[in-house]
UniProtKB/TrEMBL annotation:
The keyword Transmembrane applies. GO terms for biological process: vesicle-mediated transport. Its main location: membrane. InterPro entries: Cornichon. The keyword Membrane applies. One of its GO terms (cellular component) is membrane. Keywords: Membrane, Transmembrane, Transmembrane helix. The chain crosses the membrane at residues 53-81, 113-132. It comes from Hibiscus trionum. PANTHER family: CORNICHON-RELATED. This is Protein cornichon homolog 4-like.
Length: 137
């Protein structure tokens, strides 16, 4: 039963990550179609970057501490990429360069979005498997 709550908790964390990434993509799309100015767009995106990094790091650590080694290993490349961006100080969007890097920023967030969706599918699979396993016992 505890395992089911672990998967449910990780599912909600993954959904929160998904919402943060979609928010960032919407801000970039608004900037691309000129609905928002570069300063507002970059400040909104920059406010969402650190919570994304913290949530993803917490999720990887959570999987590691609860003994879900495979999911922790699946989260590790995403965590490594975020840590690398943070240590190189490339994690924030620059107001003056946002138009030049718009395509790259969108591509980067779409790749992260696909990665999180795959993790959500794995989490839902294991949540259903655990629920059915608990019913058999």
């Amino acid at each position: 039963m505890v395992d089911l709550f672990i998967w449910l908790f990780s599912f909600f964390i993954l959904v929160a990550l998904l919402v943060i990434l979609v928010f960032q993509l919407i801000c970039l799309a608004d900037l691309e179609f000129d609905y928002i100015n570069p300063y507002d767009s970059s400040s909104r995106i920059n406010k969402a970057v650190l919570p994304e990094f913290i949530l993803q790091g917490f999720l990887c650590l959570f999987y590691l501490l609860t003994g879900h080694w495979v999911m922790s290993l699946l989260c590790a490349p995403y965590l490594y990429y975020n840590v690398r961006l943070y240590t190189r100080k490339q994690h924030l969007v620059d107001v003056t360069e946002i138009f030049n890097l718009l395509h790259w920023e969108k591509k980067q967030r779409i790749c992260k979005l696909v990665y999180v969706v795959v993790l959500i599918f794995f989490a839902v699979f294991w949540m259903i498997y655990t629920a059915l396993e608990d019913v058999d016992d």
